[in-house]
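Entry:
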Amino acid sequence: MQNHPTYPTYPAHPSDWVAEPQPPYRRLRRAGGYRELKSFQMTTLIYDATVRFCAQWVDRYSRTVDQMVQAARSGRQNIAEGNRAGATSASSELHLTNVARASLEELLLDYEDYLRQVGLPQWEKEDLHTLEVRQLASKADEQDREIRDCSHRKRDDARMALYAPWLKSDDPVKVANTVICLIHQANYLLDKRALDMEREVIEKGGYREQLMAARLEKRDAQQSEASPSCPDCGGTMRLRSARKGPHAGAKFWGCARYPDCHGIQPHTEKSSDLSAPSDESGK
């Protein structure tokens, strides 16, 4: 009888394809939740509105169309890419966040240029229309909480429906100024995020630094279980190797508090049964 190969089974829904780490391990830096970021949700509105705006009111043969759409896309996509890269590199996340911020600044100028060159008004900061658009952000948050368990597409559609009277208006003044308001809000959020990331790196260190600290903590825990107690201070000891002298290369137990404590013990085969990691930086 011929044996047929067996194939692995995959989750039925694509959202379940993300590999989950086995407990009790967890990532040092969380990443991948960019769809819940308000800046990403806002730039999704900006991107979709820009595509529609260019199709309606900008000459399709103008290079401005491609530049505006690409700037809007870059503002959104770099938030997602930076958030994922942040799992292993704080500097990459910060860099991509700044790229997204720069793209939105470019897009902001494009909308302002359009209004100026066509001779259309731009809303002031305290105009009634500007305040009304700002208030939609809190309404969008409340709505999002009510449909939190729905798919991302449904939540995006619901958010766009809330802004539709402004972003899908037949008045280019209304659409352009609304997008300008959204860009200012997104820029504020990205600036705040960049400051938070800088503060986190200063207080907790970057990924490599956190990874090394976690490794040293794990190694100390392993050695504290495997090593004898220091005869001088009673603390934990590390397995070291002599670098010079008649016993060069020989292993011995040295106090983990060296050079504050010089306690040592001889290393025997019996004491290494637990295979404690070796520290080559002997005294």
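Residues 271-283 have pLDDT under 50 and may be disordered.
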